[in-house]
Design brief:
The chain is mainly α. It is about 75% helix and about 0% strand. The chain contains 13 helices and 2 strands; from the N terminus they run H-H-H-H-H-H-H-H-H-H-H-H-H-E-E. The protein has helices at about 1-30, 45-50, 60-70, 85-120, 125-140, 145-160, 170-200, 205-210, 215-225, 230-245, 245-250, 260-265, 270-300; strands at about 305, 310. It has a two-stranded antiparallel ribbon with strand order 1-2. Strand 1 and strand 2 form a beta hairpin. The longest helix has about 35 residues, at about 85-120. It is flat. The model is unreliable at about 305-310 (pLDDT under 50).
């Protein structure tokens, strides 16, 4: 177990290094720069700004300097959006806002998605199964920005029963949380249904039926536990994405979270914020995937984690 975790941590660090280097190079190869706007500064001012922030150096030297600072926990300072403020401070302020919305969205997706999948599997071939399958198919087909826009127009503009922007009260959380969780809820539901149907046809389920155990107990106690592994695999990166802020959803509802700020940093070519946010999100996803691997052992004790992975 310890050897396996060490191997995964080393692989995670390598993946993070590759992501950092690729993002840095691609970001700098895109034409333009953080100090170019409709009212561009004079060549002298532009040269002074680039020299101040080290942008006048060769790309390879810039990357090496950035990696050195990164090893000391320094993600740089904002060039434009919050000029000269540390990126770590900005992320520290924005992430809790996204996480607050994300926690409720994750809970909604998991608490509703798994039971809906079980319900569909339990009633396979019946009308309720068909209805749930249609809803789940629509949920994974409609983009989140369409769901968010429809909710905003219906409940905020037309019916005027829910506030459309900000997070001033608990009512402000309803539409963003649902918009963020609708796709993963439906995806989890479909995955749970498929896994449950596979588990129902397994030999140990037939044995349980032969012993006379009630169908509901067989479905929700025996079959469900063994069908959760693919669901947990998806929940890991899903949680990282949602907690970090749905980029489009935060933009639609004007939520001042990390996702919306990341989009703004790209539009403003604020390099340090782009890099810092990308590294933070990548590290978050990697950590969640590592936690998912550990949860495999909790869900199914038959799985053995060792230096070679699963055995």
């Amino acid at each position: 177990m310890a050897g396996y975790l060490i191997k995964r941590v080393l692989m995670a660090l390598l993946a993070l290094l590759i992501i950092t280097c690729v993002t840095f190079v691609v970001m700098n190869l895109v034409p333009g720069g953080p100090f170019l706007s409709e009212k561009a500064p004079s060549p002298e001012v532009l040269a002074a700004l680039e020299a101040k922030y080290g942008l006048d150096k060769p790309l390879g030297e810039q990357l090496v300097n950035y990696l050195k600072d990164l090893l000391h926990g320094d993600l740089g300072v904002s060039f434009r959006m919050q000029k000269n403020r540390p990126v770590t401070t900005i992320i520290g302020e924005m992430f809790p806002i996204s996480a607050k919305v994300g926690v409720f969205a994750v809970l909604n997706a998991v608490i509703l998605g798994i039971p809906l999948g079980c319900l569909a599997a339990y009633n396979r071939g019946k009308p309720i199964d068909s209805i749930l399958r249609v809803i789940m198919t629509l949920g994974i087909s409609i983009p989140s920005f369409v769901v968010a826009t429809l909710l905003l127009v219906l409940f905020s503009v037309n019916l005027k029963i829910l506030p459309g922007t900000g997070l001033a009260s608990w009512k402000n959380y309803l539409m963003p949380c649902f918009a963020l969780s609708f796709y993963p809820m439906c995806y989890i539901g479909r995955m749970t249904r498929s896994s449950m149907l596979d588990a129902i046809n397994a030999d140990y389920i037939r044995t349980a039926r032969a012993k006379g155990l009630p169908s509901r107990r067989i479905i929700f106690k025996h079959a469900l536990r063994n069908s959760l592994i693919p669901v947990v695999t998806y929940i890991g990166p899903m949680t990282a994405y949602i907690l970090s802020g749905g980029f489009v959803v935060e933009t639609v509802f004007s939520i001042p979270g990390l996702g919306r700020y990341f989009i703004q940093s790209i539009l403003n070519r604020d390099y340090p914020i782009i890099m810092g946010t990308t590294i933070f999100l990548a590290a978050f996803v990697i950590v969640m995937n590592l936690l998912v691997d550990v949860l495999y052992k909790v869900i199914d004790p038959r799985i053995t984690l060792g230096s070679g992975g699963e055995a």
